Amino acid sequence: MPIATYSLVALDCPDPQALAGFYRSVLGGEVSNTSDRWYELRVPGGARIAFQEAPDHRPPAWPQGDHDSQQAHLDFDVADIDRAQEEVLALGATPLDLDDRGGERGFRVYADPAGHPFCLCRQ
């Protein structure tokens, strides 16, 4: 018997409305907010990602930092990694590690506009 039920992942960021919009463009779904400091994205299938205002937010260092480790990252499966890469970069993602060794590794790493790492993964 589980102890808990999954609810959501919450990301700190300086502009929760903008970051929710970025991820809505990447994943689809609907954005709602309960205040100017908290926005939620419900993606198709029902999973939720929340975005919480943190005015002094510092992006984590990737892949590891002495004092600002990556903390967490999100993985997204894609059918066409090259097309998905073009689209996330056009939305404002920053490339962190695109060397997938000619497809051998199966993923590429980016940062969202607030600096959180995420991966596009071949299905």
Describe the fold and architecture:
This protein has 123 residues and is α/β, with parallel strands linked by helices. It is 19% helix and 34% strand. It contains two helices and eight strands. It has helices spanning 16-27, 81-91, and strands at residues 9-13, 30-35, 38-42, 48-53, 74-78, 94-97, 107-111, 117-122. A four-stranded mixed sheet has the order 1-4-3-2, with helices on one face. A four-stranded mixed sheet has the order 5-8-7-6, covered by helices on one side. A hairpin with a 2-residue loop joins strand 2 and strand 3. It is globular.
Name a few traits of the molecule.
123 residues, 2 helices, four-stranded mixed beta sheet, 8 strands, alpha/beta, globular
Low-confidence stretches: none
**Arrangement of strands in the largest sheet:** 1-4-3-2
Q: Write down the overall mean pLDDT.
A: 89
Strand content: 25-35%
Distance N terminus to C terminus? Answer: 31 Å
Label the overall shape: globular
In angstroms, what is the radius of gyration? Answer: 15 Å
Our count of helices gives 2
Describe the largest sheet: 4 strands, mixed
- Provide the succession of SSEs: EHEEEEHEEE
**How many E strands?**
8
Structural class: alpha/beta
Helical content (DSSP H or I, runs of 4+): 10-25%
